[in-house]
Amino acid sequence: MNIKHRNNNRCKFFKQGICAVLFILAINGCKKDNQIVKTPDAGSGSTIDFVLNDNFSLNVVYAGLQYAGLIDTLAKPGPYTFLASDNNAFLMEGVTQYGFYYFGSVGRVQNIMRYCILNGNISFKSLPLVQNKPFLTHGGGNVYVTKYLNGSDTIVTVNGLILSSIDNRASNGLIQVLPQVMNPEIYQKLVDHIHNDTTLTMFSAALQRCKLDVSLLSGSDEYTLLAPSNTAFYKSGQLGKDLGISTLDSILTADPVKLTAFLKYHIIKGRYFEGDLYRNMQADPTGIVMLDGGKVVIGGYPSGFHAITFLGSGNNGIPSQIPTPVFYDGTINYADIPCGNGVIHIINQVLIP
């Protein structure tokens, strides 16, 4: 599918906001034509910012760069590699070309956009087969690129997301197109994110009770956390098992040995984004091995938006999922939260070994 070029008159209509109908039609057009970016001839002087603005399916990320005050960066000589989430990716978050005011603070949008800018011409087509290779971003954190074979196809992912379009040329670098918006890597250590995320207060307290926050999650070894939300802990008493973790007081007085075994059933050795977990599901449908030695069965739909599920052995066939907010909040994205030493997926139900 081809991304359509804007003509000058339509560009004026968009920028001036004269005709809402044309805006709706343009968004619909983006859904149909979002695979191959129209790029300039070599030496044309068309920088990354120009190419983004000149393609229908990328005008939301262009607007985000403007809102964040970063569009001029991509007009400089560089070279840069820009990871551009397409319009459909932002629509999943409820954001259109004119909706960044509602998406979050300028600071949050700046974090997201800086996380998508890398120095250098990084050709993903030219990379060897790699697994979550880190690349430093302008935001200070890393993105993680994987390249693997799937039958006769070569697949490239960034933070577990399969790229929609690869190595699109501009005069000052390359554009790689993503199907979803990435969470930026803010913290170097998993423990720092957990202690600063108010959604994970109960999980944080449980880790501290067992001292796993220091002994396990503060080091350089990589782990993936299936982290139950506060609500998941509150509702744990309704699962038909006497887990004794449904209140903060009960967590603070829990048997550390039993609590450690319970928590390790929520931890995977290594870095696994959603895409990596789905690949594991295909390779071993019986489940992925957790840190306690037990298995959690991965399910769901790879083509869905955070449609992955996790089924514990003692959960009576009722899987955990990635929670979605009751009311729209563009600042919330509970899956694929990268940290320097791992990944966090927040889940809506505790896993029972």
Describe this structure in words.
The structure is a single chain. The chain has 353 residues and is an alpha+beta fold. It has two domains: 8-178, FAS1 domain (Roll); 190-347, FAS1 domain (Roll). Helices cover 30% and strands 22% of the residues. It contains 14 helices and 16 strands. The protein has helices spanning 8-16, 20-32, 48-53, 59-68, 87-92, 100-103, 106-114, 190-196, 201-210, 212-215, 230-234, 248-252, 256-264, 274-283, and strands spanning 80-85, 117-119, 130-136, 142-150, 153-158, 161-162, 165-170, 173-178, 223-228, 267-269, 288-289, 295-300, 308-311, 320-321, 337-339, 342-347. The strands form four sheets. Strands 2-1-8-7 form a four-stranded mixed sheet. A four-stranded antiparallel sheet has the order 3-4-5-6, with no helix packed on it. It has a four-stranded mixed sheet with strand order 10-9-16-15. A hairpin with a 5-residue loop joins strand 11 (288-289) and strand 12 (295-300). Helix 4 packs across helix 7 (106-114) and helix 9 (201-210) packs across helix 13 (256-264). The protein is elongated, with a radius of gyration of 22 Å. The model is unreliable at 1-35 (pLDDT under 50).
